[in-house]
Amino acid sequence: MNTAEKQYLNSADSALRTGPAVRYGGSDNPNAVEAAQELFNSLLMARPACVIFFCCVDYDREQLSDTLATLFGDVPVLGCTTAGEISPLGLSAGSITGFCLSADHFVVETALLKNLASFSERGAYDTVKGMMRRLDSRSLAPMLYNSFALSLLDGMSIREELVLSALNEALSGIPLVGGSAGDNLHFRDTHVYYDKQFFSNAAVIILINTTCSFSVLSGHHLVSDFEKLVVTKADPAKRIAHELNAEPAALEYCRVMDISLDELNSASYALHPLSVQVGENFFARSIQQVNDDLSLTFFCAIDTGIVLTKMRDGGLVAEFEQRMESVVAEIGEPQLVIGYDCIHRRIEAEGKGIYEELSTLYQRYKVVGFNTYGEHCDAMHVNHTFTGVVIGEASEFSV
């Protein structure tokens, strides 16, 4: 760690703080207790509405949880484990990062959906409607156009599509943005954080009303190729494709991508993406892993009959920069970008030698977030995207 990084990570008066509405920070200290303390120091403000953090799965979760609970007290603290972090210093790993929203500009309602294995659409709908009523009674600005929802889901729950559909219906036009928790590509140990403890098989919902301008963004840099693969045999409950074009899925994927079976790994999946076409739009369907029977497990929904399109790189860095320039033209320079960035984008950036360029761009636009096992945008669970909320400056409202 260089001197500038140490000064940032250890100073409560860091020059990287954004002002009264939002503060952000983090720590790459491997000790959970010390990392939590450094995060707390960087987020300190007079009237916090809530704190949201994203942390490496390698931290001792019990120590981290206990320390955060002690430091932040009654302040709502929400978070999740990651497949990589995005801090004020750019793309990070082995770290914790987060942000604090001021009660002067944000009011927040939160909820935990437990036991997603027996998820109830009606229960989730009622939970969100209750949150909306409570938020409306305390709102700082008109609800419909000045509110958004954030979601954090256990990335190994295989329940995103069901949960997001129910939440989106209940939100009645309020945008929903979020990400699926990761665990550094181990695929066994993903958690969300709520009410001073970590949970698996659960989802955190955060409903926010604000006097700040904001803009939701979600998109990817991929361009469609011509070759198609039809899912001819699948297990949708497990997101497994057994056959593509009536051939063993892994073998047919390798043929189309012109790679060998021995090359199948996270880097290959990131560099050789697939997508589903809906109208004129393409939505990526990222592969999680190859199985012993040569089937492929996906991060997103897959089913028999789905047609997958081979995709190619359209310029990851340039596409993100163009999107951010459009947002800045609309709402001004961001105080914060809450970022949910697919793990395959990070792997692709590493593989193509543009990691530092992307990291610098995230730092420039004040992105704080994490690398996900899937991104959430309204009712959609997608892959290979950058999805997020850009927080602009505050305005005056009469409610």
Commentary on this structure:
The chain is an alpha+beta fold and 399 residues long. It has two domains: 1-220 and 314-399, no CATH class; 222-313, Elongation Factor Tu (Ef-tu), domain 3, CATH 2.40.30. 28% of the residues lie in helices and 37% in strands. Strands 14, 15, 16, 17, 18, 19, 20 and 21 form an eight-stranded antiparallel beta sheet that branches. Strands 1-6-2-3-10-11 form a six-stranded mixed beta sheet. A six-stranded mixed beta sheet has the order 5-4-23-22-26-13. Helix 4 (121-138) packs across helix 5 (160-171). The chain starts with a helix and ends in a 5-residue tail after the last strand. Pfam families: FIST (PF08495), FIST_C (PF10442). This is Nitric oxide-sensing protein NosP. Residues 47-248 form the FIST domain.
Overall morphology: globular
Count the E strands.
Answer: 26
Give the count of structural domains.
2
Taking the alpha carbons of the first and last residues, their distance comes to 47 Å
How large is the share of residues in beta strands? 35-45%
Low-confidence region ranges? 1-19
Radius of gyration: 20 Å
The number of helices is 10
Main beta-sheet annotation? 8 strands, antiparallel
The whole-number mean of residue pLDDT values reads 93
Summarize the amount of helix as a percent range.
25-40%
Overall SS class = alpha+beta
InterPro entries: FIST_C, FIST_domain_N
Protein name: Nitric oxide-sensing protein NosP
Domain FIST C-domain: 249-379
Domain FIST: 47-248
